[in-house]
Amino acid sequence: MEFNQELITALAHGDKNAYEAIQDLPSVTRVSIGLEVDKLRQEKDIVPMNTGFSVYGEQKKSSYADPEEVGKILAANIKAQREREEAQEKSKQEHMRKVIEYRVQRSRAGLGY
User: What string of DSSP letters covers 15-79?
Assistant: First the structure.
C-alpha cells in the first residue's frame, strides 16, 4: 500500500497535525503507516521532535498514579482479608465446640458417637 510521502515524513518528524490527520483512519491502516514511519526513521536516522509521539495511539495513564491511594487500597484489602479469616476461624471454633458438646452428651448417656 502506498502512502503520501509528505505525510509519512511529517509523522516521522513528530508533526502533531499529521498525527491528528490519521486518527480517523482504521487501526490496520494506522499500523501500516506506523511501520512506514519506523522504516523511514531507521533509513534516514530521524529522531522525532516530540519524544512522546506514537503513531499507534496514546498510552493510558495508570489508575494507580498516587502511591498514597494505592497504599490505602492495599491496607483496606489486607484488613478485609484479616477480618474474613478471623470470622472463618471463629466459625470453625464454634463448630468444634458444638461437636465436642454433642459427643460429650452422647458419651455421658452411654451412647456412641
Answer: -HHHHHHHTTS-HHHHHHHHHHHHHHHHHHT---SSTT--TT-PPPPPTT--HHHHHHHHHHHHH
Average pLDDT over residues 69-94: 94
Within 8 A by CB and 6+ apart from 29, the residues are 1, 22
Crossing angle of helices 5-12 and 27-44, rounded to 10°: 70
**Distance from C-alpha of 100 to C-alpha of 21, rounded to nearest angstrom:** 77
What are the pLDDT digits (tens) for 20-30? 888 888 888 88
Q: What is the pLDDT of residues 32-62, one digit of tens each?
A: 888 888 888 888 877 766 545 555 555 556 5
Element (H, E) at 86: helix 67-108
- Dist. CA 100–CA 84, nearest whole Å: 24
Residues ≥6 apart with Cβ < 8 Å to 50: 14, 16
Specify the pTM.
0.42
